Amino acid sequence: MLDEQVGFMLRQVAQRHATLFAAKIGDDLTMTQWAALAKLAETGPCSQNLLGRHTAMDAATIKGVVDRLARRGFVETRPDPEDARLLVVEPTQAGRAVIARATPNAFAITEETLAPLDSAERGMLLKLLARLR
Fold this sequence. Notes:
The protein has 133 residues and is mainly alpha-helical. The protein is 66% helix and 9% strand. The chain has helices spanning 6-24, 31-43, 48-54, 59-71, 93-114, 119-132; strands at residues 46-47, 75-79, 87-91. It has a 3-stranded antiparallel beta sheet.
């Protein structure tokens, strides 16, 4: 009965993916740290608040992620010149180097996660997951 519950199956798949991620991403990045860096690579500098929304992290979580990335020298923060209440987050040169190293690994992790599926199944799964978000 448990084996047929969607939450249980999703957790098992997420655990398998997390194991692959930890082994292959590099630079001792967590999934949340990678999400923040990858999104910054896509969007460019943005407010910490907006970065949290883009990566589906609440305010406390994104603050912790940004703080840890800043301590590691991968991002820097500064007050938003248009709204001093906001903190702008931007990758540093070291952060951009991490992004460049980790991006191919992230694609390889996705490929390995989806490896049991053929091309049509992969497309269908991704489409269905997008509908469930």
